[in-house]
């Protein structure tokens, strides 16, 4: 089953892999047993699986369209992580201690700078966590690979196979009417 508490996109990939294993396994064999038979149940099964294949093909196209945007977001995450580390280091390492009093200076501005750096660090850390919810390029590639294994040529024209779900759909198509 899909990993609990993990990245949403990794969970999607794992769910697709689980579904593919079902299509290739015992559940797929049971559906294949319908063969070209006609009737309400076989027709419903065909329509549901065809609709699912269409939805998965759409998902693949949508993720492909988002890939360039997400590459920029991945660079933004790296920038935020770097800024977070820098601010964290400054916030913890920048201590004025008794230095202001030793020079007869008001310590409040120095305390304000330390507090502001700590708050900036917290804000950037929150931003990093939020942006971290976006999929990494490797998540999108892994999802695409699962979709290719399911749909084959439908999502990757360079493939010669129909994929697991595509092959299942072919196996349960009704026979053409006699001529």
How would you sum up this structure, described in words?
This protein is mainly α. It has one domain (about 10-170). The protein is about 75% helix and about 0% strand. The protein is built from 7 helices and no strands. Helix 3 (about 40-95) packs antiparallel against helix 5 and helix 6 (about 135-150) runs parallel beside helix 7. The chain is rod-shaped, with a radius of gyration of 27 Å. Mean pLDDT is about 80; it is low at about 1-5.
What are the key terms here?
179 residues; mainly alpha; rod-shaped; disordered N terminus
Topology:
Elements: H1 8-24, H2 26-32, H3 40-93, H4 99-102, H5 108-131, H6 137-151, H7 163-171
Helix pairs in contact: 1-6, 3-5, 3-6, 6-7
Uncertain residue segments: 1-5
Number of H- or I-type helical stretches: 7
Report the sheet-strand fraction: under 5%
- What is the helical fraction, as a range of percent? over 70%
Number of strands: 0
Mean pLDDT: 82
Oligomer: single chain
Shape: rod-shaped
Question: How do the SSEs run, as a string of H and E?
Answer: HHHHHHH
Supply the number of structural domains. Answer: 1
For the biggest sheet, the summary is: none
Alpha-beta classification: mainly alpha
Radius of gyration (CA) equals 27 Å
The first-to-last residue Cα distance is 47 Å
């Amino acid at each position: 089953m899909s990993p609990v508490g993990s990245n949403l996109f990794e969970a999607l990939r794992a769910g697709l892999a689980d579904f593919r294993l079902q299509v290739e396994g015992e559940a797929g064999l049971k559906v294949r047993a319908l063969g070209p038979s006609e009737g309400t149940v076989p027709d419903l099964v065909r329509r549901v699986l065809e609709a699912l294949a269409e939805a998965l093909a759409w998902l693949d196209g949508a993720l492909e369209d988002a890939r360039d945007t997400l590459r920029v977001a991945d660079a933004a995450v790296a920038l935020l992580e770097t800024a977070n580390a820098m601010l964290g280091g400054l916030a913890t390492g920048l201590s004025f201690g008794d230095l202001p009093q030793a020079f007869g200076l008001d310590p409040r501005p120095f305390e304000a700078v330390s507090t502001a750096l700590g708050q900036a660090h917290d804000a950037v850390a929150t931003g990093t966590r939020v942006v971290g919810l976006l999929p990494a390029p490797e998540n999108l590639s892994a999802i695409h690979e699962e979709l290719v294994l399911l749909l084959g040529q439908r999502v990757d024209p360079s493939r010669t196979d129909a994929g697991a779900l595509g092959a299942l759909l072919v196996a349960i198509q009704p026979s053409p009417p006699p001529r």
